[in-house]
Amino acid sequence: MTFDQQPKYGHLKKLHAAVNLCSDTLLYGTQTIISLGALQQAYVYKRETNECAAFLVNTDGAYDANVQFQNQTYKIPQKSISILPDCKTEAFNTAKVSSKESIRTRTPIVKANRYLTYYLWYTTSYEQSEEQSTTIRVNSRGHVLRAFVNGEFIGVNDISMLSIMIGLPDSGAYMESRASGLENVRIGEKDLSNLSWGYHYQVGFKGEMLQVYTKHGSRKAKWNKFASSSQPFKWYKGNDPVAVNLGSMGKGEVWINGESIGRYWISFLNPQGSPSQIWYHIPRSFLKPRDNLLVMFEEEGGNPLGISVDTVSVAMT
């Protein structure tokens, strides 16, 4: 099911209707340009059958204009065009948006997740014929976007988009109006922006909800013995107090005893072709004499077997 984008849809619908009323006159009539003021003109089209259509134009970017045209006064808002299909009655003005239809809005990611997570899932279904070969295109204001499709090109396909934020802005102008998340999605020439993405949000990951990075929360999850894999979005757990070299990982976050020691993005390289940081310090205040819990969330896959670690030793006096 699709939804009209209002008020844009209603405004353009009325524009098309107004132009259609005088389409024959525009196609077969003769054009005359009449000055109505310093920044105002009338574009008049007339046919031999005396049918007439006019476009009254106000190019003034600061002020509305009252103009005289064929012994009548017309008020034209700044930087707008009025359409008179019969050279008398104004049927449409580009600046007057009068559509009363309900407006459908999308929830910004920073409101949907209520600042509890940097992740927001969008899910919808799309019907694809067997003969078509298409490309999906997405515009997003998020910092990172991961896309998942079920791999089948026949019938209804379930599509999921994971919008990811790398923190939130803390400075600059108009912070209250900044938005993140999906703007539009297209498969070939079909716009999927109006599909039911907005009613299929899933905020964050189950591991975040369970707080598996804490000692109590880690007991709620089912942990498997490590097996090397490039599959993304995995949680890793260890039990040693360490300083971590994450040079073999991709992108994610690390917790020690339930405290985040930071997000890492090793796969994002600087102009010299190297990551800006691979070593991540564990503050001593985060550590316990024993039974320290180390949990990692890796978004891209990475290879935890390539992580080098240094045991943190504390001198006792």
Automatic annotation (TrEMBL):
Enzyme class: hydrolase
Residue ranges of domain Beta-galactosidase galactose-binding in the record: 237-292
InterPro entries to which the protein is assigned, alphabetical: BetaGal_gal-bd, Galactose-bd-like_sf, GHD, Glycoside_Hdrlase_35
Catalytic activity: Hydrolysis of terminal non-reducing beta-D-galactose residues in beta-D-galactosides
Places the protein is found: Secreted, Extracellular space, Apoplast
MF-aspect GO terms: beta-galactosidase activity
E.C. numbers: 3.2.1.23
Main location: secreted
Domain of life: Eukaryota
Record keywords: Apoplast, Glycoprotein, Glycosidase, Hydrolase, Secreted, Signal
A GO CC annotation given for this chain: apoplast
Domain Beta-galactosidase beta-sandwich residue range list: 41-97
Family: Belongs to the glycosyl hydrolase 35 family.
Protein name: beta-galactosidase
Organism (species): Salvia divinorum (Maria pastora)
Record lineage: Eukaryota, Viridiplantae, Streptophyta, Embryophyta, Tracheophyta
